[in-house]
Design a protein that fits this description.
- There is one protein chain.
- It contains eight helices and nine strands.
- The protein is an alpha/beta fold.
- It has a domain of 160 residues: Rossmann fold (3-Layer(aba) Sandwich), CATH 3.40.50.
- A hairpin with a 2-residue loop joins strand 1 and strand 2.
- Helix 2 packs across helix 3 and helix 2 runs parallel beside helix 4.
């Protein structure tokens, strides 16, 4: 049984991150709670990926505080992240999953069933024996999702997961993200595609120049943005 300890909400309290005198996150205050997917949008270089990495616990802020379930020292065991260009191991799709399950300390007798379950979930059963690096871009992204799910996370971070995919692969991945969220896993993802944000998000966080411009439920964000920058962004104008 999983421990009842939760990593939610994730709370940023005046978080600033500066690297070589360049401010990447600027006094970010934000709460990410359980529920529908949270989608982070904004221009390139706005800080979306850095926010995800900080929420995952991969980067420590220069100042301010990030907490998970009100704890600053929460283990990352219940968090997983998929990067925009995931690296495939030089082995089959199935063997990539077996490795992920071993790393997640899933008992060996349980791995066969878990491999079958994960392959079925992401629609890769028919290519289980194919070398992972020979899969299409969309298939690799779905395999990367399955590997992340191997650790049975409470929170799944996705960094622009459809950025290099064609429309069919994008729809397949978005449908999968919806299925994952329906299982009660909190999805937090970044995208530069407003159409995708409309399709996936329950909550929108707009970033610009390392700051949170607006955070709101998706319907309110798109239909009645609270800030001029958000209104311009929704209208398709450039934020400079």
């Amino acid at each position: 049984m999983r421990p009842t300890v939760t990593n939610l909400p994730i709370e940023f309290d005046e978080v600033t991150l500066a690297v070589r005198n360049v401010t990447i996150l600027d006094r970010v205050t934000l709460a990410i709670s359980a529920g529908t997917p949270t989608v982070i949008v904004g221009p390139n270089g706005s800080g979306k990926t850095t926010l995800l990495r900080s929420a995952m616990g991969l980067i420590r802020p220069t100042s301010g505080r990030v907490t998970w379930g009100s704890r600053a020292d929460a283990s990352s065991e219940r968090r997983a992240i998929v990067f925009q260009r995931p690296v495939m191991l030089r082995r089959s799709a199935e063997a990539n999953l077996r490795y992920a399950l071993a790393v997640a300390n899933v008992p060996a007798p349980e791995r066969d069933a878990r491999v079958r379950e994960l392959l079925a979930l992401v629609g890769l059963t028919s290519v289980a024996d194919r070398p992972a690096r020979k899969l299409s871009g969309g298939e690799q992204q779905r395999l990367a999702l399955a590997r992340a799910l191997a650790k049975d996370p409470q929170i799944l971070f996705l960094d622009e997961p459809t950025a290099s995919l064609d429309p069919a692969a994008t729809k397949s991945l978005e449908d999968l993200i919806g299925s994952i969220a329906a299982r009660g896993i909190k999805v937090v993802m970044s995208t530069h595609d407003l159409g995708e944000a409309r399709r996936v998000a329950g909550e929108i966080v707009l970033m610009h120049r390392g700051r949170i411009v607006e955070a709101n439920d998706a319907a309110s964000f798109f239909n009645n943005p609270k800030t001029p920058d958000a209104a311009r962004f929704v209208a398709g104008e450039l934020l400079v």
